[in-house]
Amino acid sequence: MNPFFFGTRQRRLFGVYSPARASASGSGTKAVLLCPPWGQEYLRAHRAMKQLATLLNQAGVHVLRFDYFGTGDSAGEMLDASLAGWQADIETAIDELKDTTDAARVGLLGLRLGGTLAAGVAARRRKDVDSVVLWDPVVSGEGYLKELLADAPARKAEHGGGYEVMGFALGDAMVAELRGLALPAAELPARTLVVRSVPGEAVGSVPVEQVEGQPAWLEDHHSGAGAVPVKVLQRMAQWWS
User: Fold this and answer.
1) pLDDT score for 114
2) Does the pTM of the predicted model rise above 0.85?
3) How far from the centroid of its chain's Cα atoms is residue 200's Cα?
4) How far apart are the C-alpha atoms of 81 and 184, rounded to whole Å?
5) Are 82 and 177 in contact (CB under 8 A)?
6) Distance CA 80, CA 87 (A)
7) What is the pLDDT of residues 185-216, one digit of tens each?
8) Domain annotation for the chain: domains and CATH numbers
9) What is the pLDDT of residues 59-89, one digit of tens each?
């Protein structure tokens, strides 16, 4: 496991690269970029994403995990972040993963909002992205925003405005972006899988697999963190093996 920074001086991103531990079956190098969710969902799902990377490595897949600008250990402030910028971060991470592994094309796996962002990037980077897994993706930005703001107090103007979502600042500009966000189901690669641990909206004609397991992005009241849904993780890792 190799933690490092990449990107530009103005937009320095934190990533963790973990190499494949076995020879991948078939021809070519297999590499997958993990696109995380946002806010408390990111914190809750951290253990599950790390375990998923381990399972993918064991299946012969190189993996890069990373933090968007303004989140985690990457540079920047949340109020300076944007959905368009985060999609650009995914593109930067794709290039970094390709350079690191010499893979001709990579796969994207996104959880919740990360899935929606990954889908948008995959639609315009067809030459670089050959497969996508959407894990409990956000299909409608408007619906997702209603969830976020259900109990979120408004922030005062001197604190940047917008809302406070369980300790995370959500600025007015990001709110506006989320209102117009939609998952581009019709533009996804032919090899796309949607995995759901909870019922959700359809994603166009893309096959959906309902896999039993606690949602990794919701708080488990026994541990205070997100669950590690082994069956869900195993299914996604097997899909790429």
Assistant:
1) 98
2) yes
3) 17
4) 22
5) yes
6) 14
7) 889 999 999 999 988 888 888 889 999 889 99
8) 2-139+185-240 (3.40.50.1820), 141-181 (no CATH)
9) 999 999 999 999 999 999 999 999 999 999 9
